[in-house]
Amino acid sequence: MLNVDKKTIINFDSNMLNKHKTTIRLISILMFIAGVLCLSFPFVSGDIISIIVGILLICAGLALMVGLFTHRQHNFWPVVGGFLVAIAYLLIGYFFLRAPEVGIFAIAAFLAGLFCVGGIIRLMGWYRFRHVKGSWLQLIIGILDILIAWLFLGATPLMSVTMVSTLVGIELVISAVSLFSFSQLFAKS
Fold it and tell me: Would you say residue 44 lies in a domain?
């Protein structure tokens, strides 16, 4: 998600952003269309999401290997550890490409873990600052995060695909609207 406020905008060069205003708008429109398609066709977009993640994992594995061998020091074990991580990235990416259905379930399990950890952290934050005004929001969001994690873990395979595609679609739509409004701010200045 794009988080842009006036403080962030001031740090940007306005000439550069005015020059790329149409590109920013085009990207936001494409993101919006992709988000609507994810929401409209969850099963097809679930496979596409899995394939994209697989390609990104393979690219990350290759980049890690190249970085390891071009910038290595005379330390043996960090290179071995990095090489093993790169191999893991390549294998996981390959499995995501070969079986996108399994890949989307792995993404759903990963998201469930993230929501669970996020919910626990928010509950701990609420408990620590429960005397502060407005801390009850941390409690509510923490409970909702754990509930969403439970829904991800307890869902059927079809529901897992739908939930991941819906989450990605909503994220794309919100980011597209944020990016488009970001480009509008520079049109006024």
Answer: no
